[in-house]
Amino acid sequence: MVRILKDFIILSIYIMASINGLVDISATSVKNSGQFYLGNNLDPGTAGQVIVSTGSQQPAEWGTNSATLPNALTMGTNLSLTSGNSSFDGAIADTIDSLPPNCFYNGSEYQLAFNQGIFMPNDDNVYYNIAVEDDSSTYIHGRVKAMTSSLELVGFITIPNGWRATKGLLSLVNSLGASITRTTRYQNVRTWGGMGYTTLGYGGTNTVTTLGTTMDGAVDRVLMLQVYTTNSPYIDFVGGGYITLEKI
To answer: Which domains does the chain have, with CATH numbers?
Structure first.
């Protein structure tokens, strides 16, 4: 159709039929009052689908959103992913978790750190003294030492909500810094609202103890760690350690 308006010629072209195949269109803008089709039939896709390319010189189609981020999101301090991955690129659904205070990830497991300041003497001895060594010794400076023989030290460690205690380790050395093996005992004890306790397992200092019974974090429970020390023939110097945690 051709219309003449004054000195200008306006050419209007109407395409009445559909076109199959690839066609180049050069335009500064496209105004569409109808619908764009993927294929010859109207196909709105399904919920969650996206338009994806099938390759160079190939038509687009509906597909699953499986795109990954060109630069993966990495986890900052005290953050982790439920999957255990160290980064998120969109390939799978995941959840960002924050680590509890004093919890560290060493690349294979989560470790809840504790220090020697948690310990106090039990009530089985006439003498209940413990002290902190501060003589600037290379081996034992800052450690807790038993001031009497056969003194049992007891410490309490709160297991975070949503986590499970599975293992434990406690450091103990003599005055020369050599590792000494002493018996340790792990227990699940109540803090309020009830009675009773559960022995989780026995082990030895300086080695990882796998708990025979695991312990989940709870508002009325605390992990009690007991170590049987001595000051003969050498004084025991107790340090800190960690509890291995798993997410529930």
So the answer is: 35-67 (no CATH), 73-98 (no CATH), 110-247 (2.60.120)
